[in-house]
User: Fold these one by one.
Assistant:
Number 1:
Amino acid sequence: MIGLTGGIGSGKSLAAQYFAELGAFVIDADQLAREAIERGSKGFDEVVSIFGDSVLLNGDVNRSALAELVFKDSSLKLKLEGIIHPYVKKKFESAVSSLKDNEVLVYEIPLLVETKSQDRFDLVVTVESEYETRVERLRSRGMAKSEIDARIASQATRQEREDVADFLIENTGSEDELLRQVENIWDSIIETF
Ligand code: ATP
């Protein structure tokens, strides 16, 4: 069981994709959190009853509007977490129990340090890259600079992630360089276990 973390825009998802290509069973905490409140789900109905129709856009939950609301109000944040967390936990546990012998689970979990989840994993990998590169990647995804800075400030620091990590991926070069680092970690995991 590998916990894969890193700051926003550091390259976690791409690293996770490479782990999957090498044979890992990958799940993504953010993806599960999206599923928890997608249209037609119980979570969706709960979100609408708490936050009202104003958080909907074309019939779906507008996740950035929701994020903005809970970012400013910690009691609303707790309510939203009360909807999302039980679903994510259930899905994570069911993935763990479906693992086959010798299968490696990689769980992409951005807020590993913030949720003190490191002890749930045999190994922790953190993906880090420079501030400017992250800003550039996130801006090309349409995020405003002020939003990016607020998110980075709300997350654990690079040092805090490195303190709990067994492996550090420095995603400061090309995609190939990232792949090579993932391959090295994969080889050493396979050797160790
Ligand atoms: P988030 O925290 O928002 O989920 P993330 O850490 O999962 O982000 P990715 O989605 O993997 O980050 O990467 C952000 C963007 O940067 C993606 O478009 C990805 O393809 C690109 N990217 C990541 N690493 C590299 C790299 N080494 N070279 C070029 N592009 C990269």
Number 2:
Amino acid sequence: MAGLEDLYREIILDHYRTPRNRGELEPPAVSVEGHNPLCGDEIRVYLDVQDGKVTDVKFSGSGCSISQSSASMMTNAIKGKSVEDVKAIVRKFKHMMTVEEDETPLDENVKLGDLEALQGVVKFPVRIKCATLSWNTLVDALALTEK
Ligand code: ZN
């Protein structure tokens, strides 16, 4: 198991050092800011949704390696996906993080890929908010695009 934990640590550090989709998007893309006061993490998610599809997503902000790498992996996982698929990924991730309240069965076809590297965070409850910050911010941004 130590080998797997090392691999997970590598994936998290890689996304922290070389974040994917870091930057900003101009309107009509929506943007929402999220804070995690427990740790001081700040994330702004920029989301461009067209015809029910996430055509582009970027993030900015600063904070601990868990918060920043989770945001980087999240943008990778949802870019180009339909809003419906994105919501399924959000649910699956939150379920892994033990913060999903919806108890209907999960779609087994939804794959988390690199995001599985964050499952070890569950052992440190105070860090779960670091990992889920960008995701909660994404949910707020998605809601804006549906208005
Ligand atoms: Zn944090």
